[in-house]
Amino acid sequence: MDTHRDAHVAAVLSLAGAVLATDEFPATAAGYRDLLKWARKWGSVGRAGVEGTGSYGASLSRYLLAQARVRRNSSHLEAGSAS
Q1: 15: Cα separation from own chain's centroid
Q2: Local structure of 5: helix, strand or coil
Q3: Is residue 36 classed as helix, strand or coil in its secondary structure?
Q4: Is-contact 60 32, C-beta < 8 A?
Q5: What does DSSP assign to residue 26?
Q6: Is 42 within 8 Å of 36 (Cβ atoms)?
Q7: Cβ–Cβ < 8 Å for 76, 50
Q8: Which residues of 9-45 are buried (b: 16+ CB within 10 A; e: fewer)?
Q9: Which residues, listed in sequence order, are joined to residue 9 by a DSSP beta bridge?
Q10: With 79 labelled, which of 45, 56, 63, 68 sits at a CA distance of 20 to 30 A?
Q11: What is the pLDDT of residues 30-67, one digit of tens each?
């Protein structure tokens, strides 16, 4: 995800790395919910790459970590087993 102050742009990629879809969502709690709902329409969310996790992407990263049961990796957020 390309994060900005007012909106975040998300892309869904195939396992081979092809872009399947892109969309823009408000940088708000409601926008984060809509983004994850949209991404899940394409299947299980296994990974989420978030740019700017220390600034504009920080809130989105926290939301994904809490809602999608993902764990932090050095370069992306990755789905983990529910425990």
Answers
A1: 16
A2: coil
A3: helix
A4: yes
A5: E
A6: no
A7: yes
A8: ebebeeeeeeeeeeeebebeeebbeebbeebeeeeeb
A9: 2, 24
A10: 56
A11: 999 999 999 999 988 877 888 887 788 899 988 988 87
Contact between residue 8 and residue 1 where contact means Cβ atoms under 8 Å apart: yes
Sequence-distant (6+) residues with CB within 8 A of 70 are: 45, 47, 48, 64, 77, 78, 79, 80
Q: By 3-state DSSP, what share of the chain in percent is helix, strand and coil, each rounded to 5?
A: 25, 30, 45
Amino acid of residue 81: S
CB-CB contact of 20 with 12 (8 Å): yes
Its pTM stands at 0.77
Both tokens assigned to 40: 């899940």
Strands (E), 14-72: 19-26, 47-48, 70-72
Q: In what order do the strands lie in the sheet with 70-72?
A: 47-48, 77-79, 70-72
